Every structure is written in C-alpha cells, then in structure tokens.
Amino acid sequence: MSMDPTVVVHPDPEVLAAAAAARLVSTLADIQARKGSASVVLTGGGTGIAVLEQVRRSPAKNAVDWSQLDIFWGDERFLPADDDERNEKQARQALLDHVPVEESRVHAMAASDGEFGDDPDAAAAGYAEVLAAAARSSSTATGAVEVPTFDILLLGIGGEGHVASIFPSSPAAAETRSTVVAVRDCPKPPPTRLSLTFPAIRAAEEVWLLTSGEAKADAVALALAGADEMSLPASGARGKQRTVWLIDRSAASKIHTLRR
Ligand SMILES: O=C(O)[C@H](O)[C@@H](O)[C@H](O)[C@H](O)COP(=O)(O)O
Fold first, then answer.
1. What are 137-173's pLDDT values in tens digits?
2. CB of 104 within 8 A of CB of 71?
3. Fewest beta carbons within 10 Å, which of 152, 190, 206, 253?
C-alpha cells in the first residue's frame, strides 16, 4: 500500500507539462537502467498530451531506450482508428511517431472500426486479454490482477473527478474484477469509451495524476482530502509504491481549504 501521495505544485500549465515530461524521461531511464525495460500507461486529455509533446521537444528524450518501452493506454475513446479524438492518434502525433518505439510493444486499445467492430464490450475484453497475456509473459508481474507490471501509469483528472474513463457513481467505478470495461453515456464526449478499472490502475507501481486549472481545484482538493472513490474517482487512483500529483497553482488553490 503506497504512502501519502507526493504533491508537486508548479507555477502554471506550461511548467507543469515540461517538468512532468522531464520527470517521465528520467524516471523511465532509471527504470531501464535497473531492469533493462520499462512500461508506461498513457492518458488522453489536454494535460496528458501536452506532457507527451514536451517529451518530444526534450533534448533528453533519448535517455529513454524507446525500443525497450512497453506502452499501454489507461483509456480510449471508442471511435474509428483515424478519428482525431482518439487518444492513440493524439499520442502518436505528439510523441510516438517521433521516437523509435518498437511497434510490437505499443498496445493500443481497439478502435470502433477495428478487429472487434463496433462492440465496445468485445473490445474491452480484447484489451483485458492483451494485458493478461502480457502479464503471463512477464517475469515481474506477480499481482493477483491480470495485468503486466505498469511502472508508471499517467492519469488526467476531470472537473468532477474522473480518471481514465471512470466517472463518478458509474459501473466502472464499482468494478472490482475486470481490468478493462466499456463505458457508455460518458458525460465527457465521446460517449462510448474503454477504460482500465481501479484494480488495474492500482496494480501500477507508480500512479501520476496530472492536471491544471481552476476547474480542477475542487476535485483535486476533495481527492487529496480522501473523498470516496465512487463519488470522486481520482481519490481511488493510487500506485502500489507511489502516488504523485503533478498539478499547477490553480488546480492546487483549494487544497488548504478542504484538507481535513
Ligand atoms: O480520454 C480522456 O478524455 C482522458 O483520458 C481523460 O481521463 C482526461 O485525462 C481527463 O478528462 C482530463 O482531461 P484534460 O487534461 O483535457 O482536462
């Protein structure tokens, strides 16, 4: 069980994205120096993609051996593969198409015009099997949850406290067995998505929550004050070894008023 979260407050969204990118590069390089390879779970959303763009711009980016990096997603918009709203497409444009990743180690969630057609439940089950197969082939994944070792799992946060596509008081927030679920009627468009669940998220070694702006201040403060994860999913996003909140001053502006 990880200790209290580490909270790092940055002056503004631009510094947050650049600092988070630097932290990600150096952390992945450290993990690869120790283990030979590393794994990261990417997030969609403006902050998550801004971090990837900053990694692309970083002169230090090739401290990471991109061919020895397993890449997964925490959630995906269930849309055709070439839709600009796809998290995978945005991540490729921001970073992955600009570094020498090993494509067999890039594990995108299915698109709605992919191998499972427009069946999000089948697509979710398919990704759960990708994770289970990766866990079986990994010498280090020892947890009860059928996912590989996620070294760093990145998450953005919605204004009402969602992480990945786990929205407040949703079936996904209550899911305790499946590692990946289909999510329908999401308040944040598009309405149909695929998402890791809390068991999968909490199997990660480190969970990093990344957000900025006044609109997130209540969710950040409530989560750090220990709100119930059903009503405030960000509260349930914890890593086995470490939980890190990388936020800007605006998103941190209500922490002191709500922390009990
Ligand atoms: O697919 C998605 O939309 C994301 O995974 C979602 O969880 C996002 O990270 C948050 O909604 C924050 O998004 P912003 O950083 O744009 O506020």
1. 876 655 678 999 999 999 999 999 999 999 999 999 9
2. no
3. 190
- CA 137 to ligand 1 center in whole angstroms: 30
State whether the beta carbon of 233 lies less than 6 angstroms from ligand 1.
no
Taking the centre of ligand 1 as the mean of its atom positions, its distance from the CA of residue 76, in whole angstroms, is 10
Helix 13-35 × helix 46-57 angle, to 10°: 70
Q: Tell me the C-alpha distance between 32 and 39, whole Å.
A: 9
Q: Specify the pLDDT at position 236.
A: 98
pLDDT (0 to 100) of residue 260: 47
Q: Whose CA is nearest to atom 9 of ligand 1?
A: 156
Matching CATH number, 18-237+250-259, of 2.60.120.260, 3.40.50.1360, 3.60.10.10, 1.10.3090.10: 3.40.50.1360
Q: How far apart are the C-alpha atoms of 165 and 77, rounded to whole Å?
A: 9
Note the ipTM here: 0.98
Is the distance from the beta carbon of residue 45 to the nearest atom of ligand 1 less than 6 Å? yes
Is the distance from CB of 20 to CB of 212 less than 8 angstroms? no
What is the domain partition of the chain in residue ranges? 18-237+250-259
Per-residue confidence (pLDDT) for residue 144, from 0 to 100: 77
